[in-house]
């Protein structure tokens, strides 16, 4: 199991969001090669603007471990985190974040520029899955415009 495998798990979550009419973002939290939290965007379903994939996956991971810190964990997410999710990730002290695709419109970078708002020990990497992640988002918004 490697970054490709776990990003595919995050992409499965993103496809669930797509199928539910949500912006297709998915995330999984992994520790010791085990998924300990997963989530996909549920903003519309829950009528909650904070119900992003990362937030749901983090909450599941915290509950799984019985801990508020994830220093040994990795978050795999299909789209670069927004500023809200970046704040939650900062406080979680997550060890590593791997995202599939950049999000120039809504990522944390829109507010922070080149400043990385994650915990100083968090490693941030762009990983596999960029093409599939971007295609899901593009298709979602194309379908939405046709309504």
TrEMBL record:
Catalytic-site annotation from UniProt: 54 (proton donor)
One Pfam assignment? dCMP_cyt_deam_1
Q: Which Gene3D superfamilies does this chain map to?
A: Cytidine Deaminase, domain 2
GO biological processes: tRNA wobble adenosine to inosine editing
Q: Which SUPFAM superfamilies match?
A: Cytidine deaminase-like
Give coiled-coil spans as residue ranges.
Answer: none
Cofactors, names only: Zn(2+)
Q: In its keyword annotation, does this UniProt entry include Translocase?
A: no
Q: Describe the family membership recorded for this protein in Swiss-Prot or TrEMBL.
A: Belongs to the cytidine and deoxycytidylate deaminase family. ADAT2 subfamily.
Could you describe the subunit structure of this protein? Homodimer.
Q: What is this protein called?
A: tRNA-specific adenosine deaminase
Q: Which organism is it from?
A: Chitinophaga rupis
Q: What is the lineage of its organism?
A: Bacteria, Pseudomonadati, Bacteroidota, Chitinophagia, Chitinophagales
């Amino acid at each position: 199991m490697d970054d490709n495998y776990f990003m595919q798990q995050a992409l499965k979550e993103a496809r669930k969001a797509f199928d539910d009419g949500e912006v297709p973002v998915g995330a999984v939290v992994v520790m010791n090669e085990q998924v300990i939290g997963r989530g996909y965007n549920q903003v519309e379903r829950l009528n909650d603007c904070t119900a992003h994939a990362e937030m749901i996956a983090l909450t599941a991971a915290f509950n799984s471990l019985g801990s508020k810190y994830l220093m040994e964990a990795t978050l795999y997410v299909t789209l670069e985190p927004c500023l809200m999710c970046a704040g939650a990730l900062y406080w979680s002290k997550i060890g590593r974040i791997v995202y599939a695709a950049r999000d120039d419109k809504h990522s944390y970078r829109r507010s922070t520029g080149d400043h990385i708002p994650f915990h100083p020990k968090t490693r941030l990497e762009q990983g596999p899955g960029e093409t599939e992640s971007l295609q899901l988002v593009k298709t979602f918004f194309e379908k939405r415009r046709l309504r």
